[in-house]
Amino acid sequence: MLTRSVESFVKKLYSILSRIEFFDIVKWLPHGRSFIIVDQELFMRKVHPRYFSNQKHYRSFTRQLNLWGFQRVPIGPDQGAYYHQLFLRGMPNLVKKMKVVKFKNGNRTKKSNDVPDFYVLSKFRPLPEIIPDSSPLPCLSFKIF
């Protein structure tokens, strides 16, 4: 049986965003409160298979984002980016507090359409800068017993 921690998806995603070799594919936005997939095709070819081998399609990846409570920025300078209040650059300890969004009567709890202005917020509460990780990638193959 394959066992994995509940937090594996968000931990892997956080790790990907810390990798210098993926900056041209997926990256934190300057304020550090959201991330964007710059090149979806490259993401699916180079990043996704290495970290999310159990998923085959980009749609499965975005479904996981939604299940973990990430919201997509619909308009503005960060359009297409994803954010979560506990998924912040330089603060990996917050990821431990993230949980899968629960369903109520078959419907997910209503999300707010109000997107915070992350650029104004970052002036008052800047996030720590990160030093990109350029160490060799770990082997992420799993053994099934």
Please work out how many helical segments DSSP would assign.
Answer: 4
CATH architecture of the domain at 8-99 and 111-117: Orthogonal Bundle
Shape: globular
Share in helix: 25-40%
Low-confidence stretches are: 139-145
Looking at the structure, the CATH topology of the domain at 8-99 and 111-117 is Arc Repressor Mutant, subunit A
Describe, in plain words, how this protein is organized in 3D.
- This protein has helices spanning about 10-15, 40-50, 60-65, 120-125, and strands spanning about 25-30, 35, 70, 80-85, 105, 105-110.
- It has a domain at about 10-100 and about 110-115: Winged helix-like DNA-binding domain superfamily/Winged helix DNA-binding domain (Arc Repressor Mutant, subunit A, Orthogonal Bundle).
- The protein is α+β, with helices and mostly antiparallel strands and about 140 residues long.
- It is globular, with a radius of gyration of 16 Å.
- It has a 4-stranded antiparallel β-sheet, with no helix packed on it. The chain has a two-stranded antiparallel ribbon with strand order 5-6.
- About 25% of the residues lie in helices and about 10% in strands.
- The chain is built from 4 helices and 6 strands.
